[in-house]
Amino acid sequence: MSGNIHPTALVDPAAKLDSSVRVGPYSVIGPDVTIDAGTEIGPHCVIDGVTTIGRENRIYRYCSVGGMPQDKKYAGEPTRLVIGDRNTIREFTTFNTGTVQDGGLTTIGNDNWIMAYVHVAHDCHVGNNTILANSVQLGGHVHVGDWAIVGGLTGVHQFSKIGAHSMTGGNSSLMQDMPPYVLGAGNPCRPVGINVEGLKRRGFSASVISSLREAYKIVFRRGFSLDEARAELRARQQSHPDAAEALQVLIDFFDASTRGIIRP
Prior knowledge:
Layout: E1 10-11, E2 16-17, E3 22-23, E4 28-29, E5 33-35, E6 40-41, E7 46-47, E8 50-53, E9 58-59, E10 64-67, E11 80-83, E12 88-89, E13 94-96, E14 105-108, E15 113-114, E16 119-120, E17 125-126, E18 131-132, E19 137-138, E20 143-144, E21 149-150, E22 155-156, E23 161-162, E24 167-168, E25 173-174, E26 182-185, E27 190-194, H1 196-201, H2 206-220, H3 226-239, H4 244-256
Parallel strand pairs: 1-4, 2-5, 3-6, 4-7, 5-8, 6-9, 7-10, 8-11, 9-12, 10-13, 11-14, 12-15, 13-16, 14-17, 15-18, 16-19, 17-20, 18-21, 19-22, 20-23, 21-24, 22-25, 24-26
Antiparallel strand pairs: 26-27
Helix pairs in contact: 2-3, 3-4
């Protein structure tokens, strides 16, 4: 057993841990766990289920990773949890494996900042470079796009989607899909504008941000139906080719929405 594993930790002999993985006191790691190089597991963590964890993650104390889904339909199937690289996962977080009703897989991408008491339920898919603030609760089958920021104490209804580069305020209740680039807040969560500061920090040009501001007005301010708004956005792609790719992200999100989007 590696010298990086504390003598009080219980690591099943069948678990596959890179020799550089560090495991803190009193942590428990099950037989179907694989952990790649440079990852650190803090004290009093439980890593179980069919769980794969990538490189250079930092998992703090008292986390439960790879637990069985909180779904009455679950009957012990070998569903999975896959976590990417360089994630920061703070105290008392709980991540569940998937269910066979939705592909049997929960995923968390790369470079995410996941704060204390966050719950990621079965069959969720969290992208890259997200921030899930303290006590965010993701219901089953939730999708979170790249660079999204979910404010503290936000609850997200099962099957909802959170678009890339969006941001919710703290204490929000998200019952429908949150489009990309949008700021939202409240109970229920309602759109309040475009995430301009976030887009600037990620290198979006002034002209693209201006087009996204106009897109926000088309979707939320001008009384269009969603089908009419899509048609307007496609027309704007033609007249503003520099923003065509960013606008396509919005259009694709609307096409994939199953719960409807949040509304003012």
